[in-house]
Amino acid sequence: MTADPGTLSETTTRPRAVTGLSDALAHALKAAMAETSEAVGTRLSELLPPPDAPEARVLEAMRYAAMGGGKRLRPFLVVRSAALFNVSPSAALTVAAALEMVHTYSLVHDDLPAMDDDDLRRGRPTCHRQFDEATAILAGDALLTRAFEILADPASHADPAVRCELVRELAEAAGARGMVGGQMVDLMVERGIGDLSMDVAAITRMHQLKTGRLISFACLAGPIMGKAPARMRACLQAYARDLGLAFQIADDVLDETGSAQDLGKTPGKDAAAGKTTFVTLLGLDGARERARLLSDQAVGHLEVFGPEADLLRAVARYVVERDR
């Protein structure tokens, strides 16, 4: 993680291609991601049926947040990692939907006035703007708990030991030593709580918790469900580690260079809040170069899987080439 800054122009608004993702593979990735997004949306609708009870408002808010679109990157990683081990597509989609609920809950809570205070998410009003703060908090709580209810159900996997492992891994990824812990560090630095300072090593660790742990779970879900050997799990875990960090660095770049129309959320908020990001530490060129190197490393970890992992390789290119 010691890359020097690259040589791209500061006025360039999109990262250049890492190694020239072929048109055919780019088309295949776009089609596969769209197909998975639609399938996950259908599964989410099945798992979060329209409400018809007195508590309908919180159920409506859950559906509003979860069915709001987005890249569905984490569900895609679940589905593709599961395909490497011939896991039932239906089971993979169920686990993918559960993970998307956890991710969505985190976005609902992150957008609240007590956290990032955002008005726009996925091109629509944030959940607390569409409903109210109390409803948004409850909707996030309910999405989180619904996710674990789903993972514990036999529809996720016939083997109860596998279901227990999925529950444990996701709980660890989402909790105080994972996503929530990373968010806590982020808030402490932003608000001057304690004596924390952000250099490249510290911000890397923070984002490995805040963003990387759910991406890691997404890539490990497949080998867990497929009862894969430890070596293959380790390769996918290493891939996820580098992919997650590349994704976050690209997000920091886009926050500086993107528009609300492209991003579906308010750009420039990190800079306005004085947050330390990879861009503030490395500059735009240096951040782009770091993301490209991480993408290359992620691809290298997939060698053991051969051409069956081509779409996962394409994802590693996509996360640093995307413009939203």
TrEMBL record:
According to the UniProt entry, what is the EC number of this protein?
2.5.1.1, 2.5.1.10
Name one molecular function that GO assigns to this entry.
(2E,6E)-farnesyl diphosphate synthase activity
Q: Which GO terms describe its biological process?
A: terpenoid biosynthetic process
Question: Matching SUPFAM superfamilies, A to Z?
Answer: Terpenoid synthases (SSF48576)
Q: What are its cofactors?
A: Mg(2+)
Offer one Pfam family short name for this entry.
polyprenyl_synt
Q: Which InterPro entries match?
A: Isoprenoid_synthase_dom_sf, Polyprenyl_synt, Polyprenyl_synt_CS, Prenyl_diphosphate_synthase
The record's top EC class is transferase
GO cellular component terms?
A: cytoplasm
Fetch the CDD domains from UniProt.
Answer: Trans_IPPS_HT
Q: What keywords appear on the UniProt entry?
A: Isoprene biosynthesis, Magnesium, Metal-binding, Transferase
What domain of life does the UniProt record list for this protein's source?
Answer: Bacteria
PANTHER family listed in its UniProt record: FARNESYL DIPHOSPHATE SYNTHASE
UniProt record similarity statement: Belongs to the FPP/GGPP synthase family.
Q: What is this protein called?
A: Farnesyl diphosphate synthase
Q: Which organism is it from?
A: Roseospira goensis
